[in-house]
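Listing S7. Sequence submitted for prediction.
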Amino acid sequence: MSGYAQSDTLKISGIITDSSTGEQVSFASVHVCDTSIWVHSDQSGAYSITLPAGMVKLQCSTIGYKTFNIEVNLINDLEMDILLEPDVIDDSSHFKRWEIDWKAFNCYGFSNMYEGAMAMFGLEGRYDIWRTPLEVGLGFSYALPLNMKLEGAYRYWSLYASLDCKLNLLEFRVGKNLAQPYIGVAVGGGQSFGEGKESHANVAIRAGFDIRHFRLFFEQHFNSDKARGSYWGLTYYF
């Protein structure tokens, strides 16, 4: 019989700092690979995580830094400071990723809105602002009713700019996927087509979750024409 019970646990703790400045890195995520176990560093960069003894793979990451990976054999409580290397972004490639934004939503909340299901698709370029939880984007969207046989069916297109804030302190695990909530706003304008053609301005409040290559989102739109309402959908990053 082994002299070390599997139920015994040990602690890994330390300070997470910037390797170039020596400043503490707050709210960095320390994740035990292949598990749902993770913690955040506090405002002074300190972290602490309790685990069973044995081989442990840790991954430390946060916005603006390269991901840090290490494997240790945990046989005693371990003091382990982590140095994160800043992730220098190539300024010649500001749009780090593009997404095809397929959306499906129901319009409601205003009596003068188009009544019935609509579909919206578009293309949006997004850029993480270095070392902050902010993300900016430029996009195009086109909305149309699912039943195109309706006479005078309402549809519209828009060009818009967005600013989203990732809520790092509220991120959580869904299995092995990291789900990160965000809130934001988008503003833009375009043209709508129904009984006639007219220009419109648009403001949208955005919220949702990023889960690897997908984004589940909710948007409340305030168009200057009748396309006001709440929309929900799913985005795929490619």
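Caption to Listing S7: primary sequence and predicted structure tokens for the chain studied. Residues 167 and 202 are 25 Å apart (CA to CA). The chain has two domains: 9-84, 97-237.
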